[in-house]
Design a protein that fits this description.
Structural class: mainly beta
Strand content: over 45%
Order of helices and strands: HHEEEEEEEEEEEEEEEEEEEEEEEEEEEE
Helix content: under 10%
Number of strands: 28
Strand order of the largest sheet: 1-28-27-26
Shape: globular
Number of helices: 2
Radius of gyration: 19 Å
């Protein structure tokens, strides 16, 4: 493929793909065509040190990132061109910002989790911090429930705290006796999932937090987890370099993706649930078909990737890498792939 050719018709062509998504062969062909004609990689200046997390808001008009330089960046995204420009760089945290996450029910509300033992809630319209919630440990995991009613934050001591974002205070907490990696709710917000250092997935009822299932998913540390927006699957990534696809109803593994050679740090489903992006220390991001496992394309990177996130309505992928500038200093940028040509 010629990764530097662009065509302004290909985004229009991809818009028709959803109506034919029941045919994986047709979808794969048009997805490949889309990325052949929209191969653009766009670097966006964000931070002074490496970004750890990227996330789109619910309507795709804003993007956020958190960094090792203690900052949270918020960007505006043009609806048609996907051109991104930084609106604000928040410097309120006093330590590394490990995660950022938008409210699934509100396009302007953002939360960030930091090793400074706080989470901060931001209003992107007012460009300010609405509230700071102090926590007991250095925060590394973060997720917002699909109904917008609860934020869950996990720290280095494997304590998960459930916070009411309206009252700005904790309403429950759960201490675990194993290494907790990534956390998430299912799309109905009645089950809570954790990946752990033993290679397993723990599934708890919510809100009572009673353990319902333990899936022995991988022979090595289970690092990442992501829910499919169609509510059919979820995916996990592991230190065994495999991404695995699970049937959400049956809780059985239906497929593995094995193109990476390093631990799978981050996963993201496309908005239509048809493609899965998997990222690691490999110098590419793998994009595969969910239903068949076939390769769609590989996004070349210059460094290990920490976080990937598909746009909520377009086939545009945001990601954060450990990129360096010409002086071997952290570039602090985030990157976009699949930007439609102007």
């Amino acid at each position: 493929w010629t990764w530097y050719e662009v065509d302004d018709l290909s985004e229009r062509a991809m818009a028709a793909v959803a109506s034919r998504s029941s045919n994986p062969t047709t979808y794969l062909s048009e997805a490949k065509h889309h990325f052949q004609r929209n191969p653009r990689l766009k670097d966006v200046a964000a931070h002074r040190q490496k970004a750890h997390s990227v996330a789109w808001n619910k309507d795709g008009r804003r993007l956020a990132s958190g960094s090792m330089d203690f900052t949270v960046a918020v960007f505006s995204c043009d609806r048609d061109s996907c051109a991104v420009s930084r609106d604000t760089l928040h410097r309120d945290h006093s330590d590394i910002v490990n995660q950022v996450c938008w409210n699934p029910q509100h396009p302007d509300h953002l939360v960030s989790a930091s090793e400074d033992k706080t989470i901060r809630l931001w209003d992107a319209r007012a460009n300010r911090c609405m509230q700071t919630v102090k926590t007991s440990g250095e925060n590394i995991n973060l997720t917002w429930s699909p109904d917008g009613q609860t934020i869950a934050v996990g720290n280095k001591d494997d304590l998960i705290v459930f916070i009411d974002p309206r009252m700005f205070k904790a309403k429950a907490e759960e201490q675990f006796k194993f290494e907790v990696n990534e956390i998430t709710w299912n799309n109905d917000a009645d089950m809570f999932f954790l990946t752990n250092g033993h290679g397993a997935i723990s599934i708890l009822n919510y809100p009572d937090l009673k353990l319902q299932h333990t899936l022995n998913a991988h022979p090595a540390n289970c690092i990442s987890i992501r829910m499919d927006p169609t509510n059919k699957y979820f995916a996990t990534g592991s230190a065994d370099a495999l991404a695995t696809l699970w049937d959400l109803d049956e809780l059985v593994c239906v497929r593995t993706f094995s193109r990476l050679d390093w631990p799978v740090r981050s996963l993201s489903f496309s908005h239509d649930g048809q493609m899965l992006a998997s990222a690691s220390e490999d110098l590419f991001i793998d994009i595969s078909m969910v239903e068949t496992g076939e390769a769609v394309c590989q996004v070349t990177c210059n460094a290990p990737t920490f976080s990937v996130a598909w746009h909520p309505s377009k086939h545009v992928l945001a990601f954060a890498c450990d990129d360096k500038d010409k002086h071997e200093r952290d570039s602090g940028s985030i990157r976009l792939f699949g930007i439609p040509s102007s």
